[in-house]
Write a structure and sequence with these properties.
The protein is of the alpha+beta class. The protein has helices at about 5-25, 35-45, 45-65, 120-185, 195-230, 250-260, 265-285, 325-330, 330-395, 400-435, and strands spanning about 30-35, 75-80, 90, 95, 105-115, 235-240, 290-300, 310-320. Helix 2 crosses helix 4 (about 120-185), helix 4 (about 120-185) runs antiparallel to helix 7 (about 265-285) and helix 6 packs across helix 9 (about 330-395).
Length: about 450
């Protein structure tokens, strides 16, 4: 039988045995979750992502508000009040007279103002709001990838604990059978009571370890339930087929190219650079003239020049042009600051590219390392199983002491646990690599 076929058989046996351990835990209130369901529930329940979604909606509303700058301003006014008694002096401040005037005044106005040219300020403000909306979306995507990886870490920890529970349960059963044999050998006078006591102590330690593992399963499940929004707090059982998931590797250059194009944090930095460049144009727009089309209509009573108690209506329409001369010497420093901000953002992009190169290289190397560890621990488990079988036979034939047998059992237990850890590490490093290149 080839090594590859042998590895497949071992994995199938492991999957079936782990499913048995999961079924044992499922006697309590349990919830089966695949990785896809884990991600879906985690994203839906994440308070961080809910906050990010609200910020994204806020940015979208700012974008809609910025577009209203293209619309005209329309204002309606109404004034009404009492007219005081005017005093007219005929000679300096002497000989006052009190002419007859109306008691009430009324004024109705409609003002219209349409911006025609603002130096590009309105258009650039709309672009700024549009970029900020995209930045909010990319920030949510970045946090979403972090949350997925964090959930997966908890999920794989739970997976490892279930396997540990299985191994310890099987080890306790083996210890109980061994203790029965040792007690029988003690009755036959082949060994001393010391071996019985040591075996009982070892069995007690294994049972304590099993209890600790069960408690850890409850703790990790409770943590995941909080993140997933499960109020009834069931024991979460992981998908046992996860370890059979294919984890193909692409080349380093392919991963790096994907990261430059798809990674949300890389896209986020590019958008922030674009935002800084847009701010330069907004600052420059303040140095350009403003042109507006205006129109107004006023209906007033009385006629203010003669105080005749009659309605007077007048309207006007025209263009207004203004040029902010003070901006020529005030906004120079502001423009320079915005230009420096663009330079800072470009340096941030270069720094992020360097970080991506290191992250992807490390992730590829760690993933290959995990694959090699799995092969090594598979061989170690086979060797430990054979070593334990030999030591057990030797002990039963009084050719080895109990310490050697317990050491062989401890080596086998550790090898099985390390094999599970290496397999879960393969999955984690694979998803870690997917996150680094923007595919998670």
């Amino acid at each position: 039988m080839s090594l590859k076929v042998s590895n497949i058989i071992r994995k199938l046996i492991f999957t079936g045995s782990l499913f048995w351990a999961v079924s044992a835990q499922a006697q309590q209130d349990s919830l089966f979750l695949s990785v896809e369901q884990l991600f879906e529930s985690g994203i839906k329940s994440s308070l961080q992502l809910q906050s990010d979604s609200l910020k994204e909606r806020m940015a979208y509303e700012r974008k809609l508000y910025a577009k209203t700058g293209l619309l005209p301003d329309l204002e309606i006014g109404l004034k009404g009040g009492i007219i005081g008694q005017p005093v007219v002096f005929q000679n300096g401040l002497s000989n006052p007279t009190y002419p007859d005037t109306p008691d009430w005044s009324q004024n109705y106005t409609v003002d219209f103002n349409q911006p025609l040219y603002q130096g590009g300020k309105i258009r650039r403000s709309i672009q700024k709001a549009d970029i900020e909306t995209e930045i909010a979306r990319l920030q949510r995507m970045t946090n979403q990838a972090d949350i997925k990886l964090g959930l997966l870490n908890q999920y794989l920890t739970l997976f490892t604990l279930f396997k540990q529970h299985l191994v310890l349960t099987r080890n306790i059963e083996e210890s109980e059978r061994r203790l029965q044999d040792i007690r029988q050998m003690k009755k036959e006078g082949l060994i001393t009571n010391n071996d019985v006591l040591r075996s009982e102590m070892q069995l007690t330690n294994d049972r304590l370890s099993l209890q600790e593992t069960e408690n850890s399963i409850h703790i990790v499940s409770q943590q995941l339930n909080l993140l997933l929004g499960n109020d009834r707090n069931p024991i979460i059982t992981p998908d046992t087929t996860l370890l059979q998931q294919a984890t193909p590797l692409d080349s380093y250059d392919d991963y790096l190219l994907s990261a430059y194009e798809l990674a949300p944090d890389m896209q986020l930095l590019r958008k922030e650079t674009e935002l800084a460049q847009n701010q330069i144009e907004i600052d420059r727009a303040s140095r350009r003239p403003n042109i507006n089309l205006y129109a107004s209509n006023t209906l007033a009573r009385p006629i203010t020049r003669t105080m005749t108690d009659l309605y007077n209506n007048n309207w006007n329409i025209g263009l207004s042009v203004s040029y902010p001369l003070s901006s020529l010497f005030k906004n120079g420093h502001k423009i320079k600051e915005s230009q420096l901000q663009v330079a800072v953002q470009k340096k941030e992009e270069e720094l992020k590219k360097q970080q991506l190169q290191m992250d992807i290289y490390n992730a590829i190397l760690r993933h290959k390392e995990a694959l090699q560890e799995e092969e090594a621990w598979e061989l170690s488990v086979c060797q430990a199983q054979e070593n334990y079988r030999i030591m057990q036979n030797r002990y039963m034939n009084q050719l080895a002491i109990l310490t050697d047998l317990l050491d062989a059992n401890s080596v086998l237990l550790n090898a099985e646990l390390q094999l599970t850890s290496s397999r879960t590490r393969i999955i984690y490093t694979y998803y870690q690599l997917q996150k680094a290149c923007g595919r998670l």
